[in-house]
Write a structure and sequence with these properties.
heterodimer; A: mainly alpha; 14 helices; B: mainly beta
Chain lengths: ~325, ~100
């Protein structure tokens, strides 16, 4: 796929994303924090974070006393999944912004996750499957480790390893992860787990045994699940973006060249099913901001994955500084 | 019939048993399902992450599962084990037309 086409799409979609700023920016009023985190990720990967310090400070302002965040910024009850996404964007954003209030906020977030882990290593959030929920604090701790944050370091390392073990121990023998209540097909969970929780260890210090094999089996399952037209999960745009992005980082770290064609087929389907501006949840559906952020993120990661240096795409997960 | 509440959604023949249909009334997307002759109407957007319930998975126990992240709702009353309910609408048929109370 010509990179000029990707560049033009990124330029057009980023302009649309900025035009819709009132829909995602905390500086304009209360927001859905999952959407805010999606938007901050776009800013990070478009390398425009330094222009949006006020958005990061607004995210700190709505952090709850326990260190977590709520699904909606005006609420006060923390939930794990969104807290991890917000914490992740803060620690990654602060690498560029280097702001004391963000530094303190990240420490509070670390304490929140240390205080909410269950004894068997999982984290629980009634809005998401336990495996998916657990992968998010693990992902946050991956970046905490990668960036050398030392707050409560020993406890972080133990919690991270327990979470990772919980995920590895629940992998099915066919390579996928499933949740009968939330996601029986397993597609989205498998894509999330290998990219967010597992593969980072291979880049950071290969501390946990079995990660490489687990990632390879998970990636192979994603290959198998792809439809002939390049999509995943009944033409689900979100899950096709998840799988494509997941394979971009996992196959690059594993050095598995089989993923290239599969990623490209996924990307072509995503582009073919874009609306005039942005993406909807399924082909033909109206554009929504969250999917548009995911689409932009997918394009930005694909562009990075085309660079000669394999670490360029890994950097967009925060696993290398 | 109170025109302020009951709105015509579609012709009954457009929604045969086993089918589903998306309609838009008062700028609101509503997902219609015909399960063995009983018609159910829900707001199309899942209260979790706004996933389109019209693309959801219907089960024999009368539930629908959102295709995005799996939240399941009772088609009859919108109840769920998750921390939110789906919005359901009353349905009635008259003279071959389907009406929804919105």
């Amino acid at each position: 796929m010509p990179l000029e086409q990707i560049d033009q799409l990124i330029k057009d979609e980023y302009a649309f994303f900025l035009q819709e700023r009132n829909g995602w920016s905390l500086t304009t009023g209360p927001q859905d924090l999952e959407l805010v985190a999606h938007a901050l990720r776009v800013l990070l990967h478009a390398r425009t974070t330094p222009d949006f310090l006020a958005d990061y400070l607004a995210l700190v302002d709505c952090q709850n006393a326990d260190g977590g965040w709520s699904p909606f910024s005006a609420d006060q009850e923390s939930t794990v999944w969104v807290s991890a996404f917000c914490g992740l964007m803060l620690i990654r954003g602060n690498r560029l912004l280097k702001h004391e209030r963000l530094t303190q906020s990240v420490k509070k977030a670390i304490d929140y996750f240390l205080n909410t882990q269950h004894q068997d290593g999982r984290w629980v959030d009634s809005r998401w499957a336990d495996l998916d929920t657990t992968s998010h604090p693990v992902s946050f701790f991956n970046v905490v480790r990668a960036l050398g944050e030392t707050h409560n370091w020993g406890d972080v390392r133990r919690a991270w390893e327990q979470g990772l073990r919980f995920i590895i121990d629940h992998q099915s023998t066919d390579g996928g992860w499933y949740d009968n209540d939330f996601h029986p097909s397993g597609v989205e969970i498998t894509a999330h787990l290998i990219q967010d929780a597992l593969v980072a260890d291979l880049v950071i210090d290969s501390r946990v045994r079995g990660v490489r094999e687990s990632c390879a089996k998970g990636a192979a399952k994603l290959y198998e699940w792809q439809a002939a037209n390049g999509s995943w999960d009944e033409e689900n745009v979100d899950h096709t973006m998840d799988c494509s992005r997941s394979l971009m980082v996992v196959t690059r770290i594993l050095g598995d060249g089989r993923g290239e064609d599969i990623i490209l087929r996924g990307l072509r389907w995503i582009i073919d099913n874009k609306n005039a501006q942005g993406w909807g949840d399924f082909p033909g559906m109206e554009t929504n901001l969250e999917r548009t952020c995911d689409g932009l993120d997918t394009l930005l990661k694909y562009k990075a994955s085309c660079n000669g240096n394999p670490l360029d795409v890994v950097r967009l997960w925060g696993y290398v500084p | 019939m109170d025109p302020q509440h009951w709105l015509e959604a579609c012709r009954l023949e457009e929604l045969p048993p086993g089918s589903r249909k998306l309609v838009k009334l008062n700028n609101l997307e509503i997902a219609l399902f015909n399960l063995e002759g009983v018609i159910y109407a829900l707001k199309n957007r899942c209260p979790h992450r706004s996933g389109p319930l019209i693309r959801g998975f219907v089960d024999p126990a009368g539930g629908i599962k959102c295709p995005m992240h799996g939240w399941r709702f009772n088609l009859r009353d919108g109840s769920s084990e998750r921390p939110a309910r789906a919005t359901v609408y009353q349905v009635k048929a008259e003279n071959g037309l389907l009406y929804l109370c919105v």
